[in-house]
Amino acid sequence: MVSIQLDDVGACYGPRTIISGVSTARFVGGQVVAVVGPNAAGKSTLFKRIAGLIDGPGEVSLQGSAKGVQGISYMPQGLNASTRLTVYESVLLARKQLAPGWTVHDDELKLVDEMLDALGIRDLAFRNLGELSGGQQQLVSIAQTLVREPEVLLMDEPTSALDMHRQVQVLNFMRALARQRQVIVFIALHDLNQALRFADQVLVIADGTAQGSGPSHEVINEAMLRAVYKVEARIERCSRGQHHILIDDIV
Which runs of E-coded beta strand occur in 130-242? Predict the structure, then answer.
């Protein structure tokens, strides 16, 4: 089973330190890890550091992987393709970037079809990316990432442009994918109620450092909300054992 652990991880842009000293317990395949924290806390930089897109101190320890660092896929906030491509072409191209040569095989076409169906965007397959809404483009970006069949998936705010129905659909799908394929899914989220509902583990990033890491219902608590988000809030237990944040005031 694939697993990953961060040990004193940091990253800089030139002389400026963006994140430093980020350490976690070992995350394992099948888990959804919500990465939360205020704006400009360093979440995107941390994802790029884990993916090997930028350098920095510390160690990202990946074990049990059949693909090594190639098994880590990073989904940025923006669409990663030319807007002149069709949806189908962009997703297929994302798949072909993994393999030498440009011969397209039936199993690759089947995988693209499956991802478009799973995300409910088959009807967009032959529309140009530039014609799509922001939410539609975000779903295409998710398909581009998933078609690579990652072992560790880093998703930077994948639901920010989606309506409530689509947000729940995508997060349910990602949680099922993690379980079925034993993938580790990191998702940067701003909605802490979604983190409580869909994530097994939470990593809190603020001021470029880790402020907490562990099971979601333990890490997201009143003290963390006060210290990191500067709000007074209560966390209530709802039906099915879920928890919900009720905000009273700002600090």
Answer: 152-156, 184-188, 201-206, 209-215, 231-237
